[in-house]
Amino acid sequence: MKSAYERALERLKEQGFEDAPPLTPAEKKKLRELESAHEAKIAEREIVVKQKIAQHAAAGELDKAQELQQKLIEEKQSLRQKLERDKQAIFDRAAKRKKK
To answer: Can you give the pTM of this predicted structure?
Structure first.
């Protein structure tokens, strides 16, 4: 399994950044913490929402269950976007430091 740092480096290379900025140990730790927090938040939301979906499905409220499923998808996408913005901010700071 690749680390958050390795996955981010791959994305940078895909975007044309061959010489990715070196990260400090603190920045690498922050990336790991962001990934971990993100995974925990998604898992928590999935547990809660899937229980509600099951309750609505059991009660025959399929429209409500489907609506909750769609909201979960949107919420996960929003959380992923926030994670990517937070990680990009770390790389931006590292790139600025490298230019100095």
So the answer is: 0.73
